Amino acid sequence: MIGAALMPAWIIIVLLMLSDKGGLPKAAAFVAGTLLVRSIQGVVFGAVFQREDQAYGEAGTQVLVSTLLLVIGLLLLTLAYKKWTKEEDPDAPPPKWLASLSEMSVGRAFGMGALLMAVGMKHWVLTLTALATITAGQLDQPQSIVAFAIYLLVSASLLLIPLLFSAIAPRRAASALGSARSWLERNNRPVTVIASLVFGLYFAFQGIMGLLG
Known about the structure:
- 85% of the residues lie in helices and 0% in strands.
- The protein is mostly helical.
- The longest helix is centred in the N-terminal third of the chain and has 61 residues, at 24-84.
């Protein structure tokens, strides 16, 4: 959940939208687009993993979880290396999209959020890992739904908090969110490198230990 929440580029997009006049509906639409796609992934692949668990049992599910952890660990370590060497992140939004945020409609903002979630490999693997982990917990259906809903909320928390702050206290939010955006823009690279390295090593270690065990 924490790994999914730490997406500096997405946070910057939301903060940029909120900094524009009337940007709250656009930012909310962007976040809604990401949540919709992630929810669809949960419904579809949650059912798939449930069938796999029934077919192959707990041992098979453990292998699946460990494999996904290893994959996301390697992806995050690759991202850390690319950011460290200043290579472009393939899941980052194109610069021209950032430049056109102020002119973007609510509908296009929704579509942008859905598209970035749909094409981002890291986001797919993170969501699939969460679903596989929930399946491995042998929860009943209501508990599994609650667990995935918690994952959705926490993974989007760093996008939802600025939205709520801007909706509740727009004047106070303008200055605070502007400062946060400036800090993220200045420190995007080191934040991404450190977060990707820490979580990459952790996920890779857990995946390898799970496969060996």
